[in-house]
Specification:
- The chain is built from ten helices and seven strands.
- With 192 residues, it is α/β, with parallel strands linked by helices.
- The protein has two domains: 6-17 and 84-191, HAD superfamily/HAD-like (Rossmann fold, 3-Layer(aba) Sandwich); 20-79, no CATH class.
- Strands 5-4-1-6-7 form a five-stranded parallel beta sheet, sandwiched between helices. Strands 2-3 form a two-stranded antiparallel ribbon.
- Strand 4 (102-106), helix 7 and strand 5 form a beta-alpha-beta unit.
- Helix 4 (54-64) runs antiparallel to helix 5.
- The radius of gyration is 17 Å and the shape is globular.
Amino acid sequence: MQTFDAVLCDLDGVLRRFDHDRQREIEQRYGLPVLATAFTPELMEPAILGRTTSAQWLDAIAVALGGHDDAVRATEEFADVDFWVDEQVADLLTRARTRMPLVLVTNAMDNLDDHLAQLQLTDFADAVVSSAVVGVAKPDPRIYEIAAAAAGAAPDRCLFIDDRPANVTAAQALGMTGIHYRDLDDLAVLRE
């Protein structure tokens, strides 16, 4: 059995889930590529690096989609899509936290604290490292170093979990043990 001194875990795509069916329905109804537009680097990066607000990001999406009434409505509906906690993942992380520090490491915007409160995750982890606060985003090595320091652990003693392979690869380059999360079976090491 492999042991670690800390668990560093992504939020979106691992612990938090979004209603992707609803997102697709919005795109189809309006005939607009909302998701692809929202996550283009030129719109997303300033928001997750804390240079613009989440409200400014949404405004930029609507403008990029054409700025017309349908673009504004589609963007507003996209912003209101439901999200929730994956309770099975939360349970495994909670159990792991009884043995070692848990740090959430997320490419997030200025509204992260509000979302964590809405999800009742305000005190879920020992620390939260938000890209919008620290000014660097995954897969930049500095965010992993910040997260390991927040956990009080050396990078090579950290388990890092993320749903994006590039983020896992970057963590592994620092000596962390990485898990590319796709489903609950990928977290079997947390059960040990």
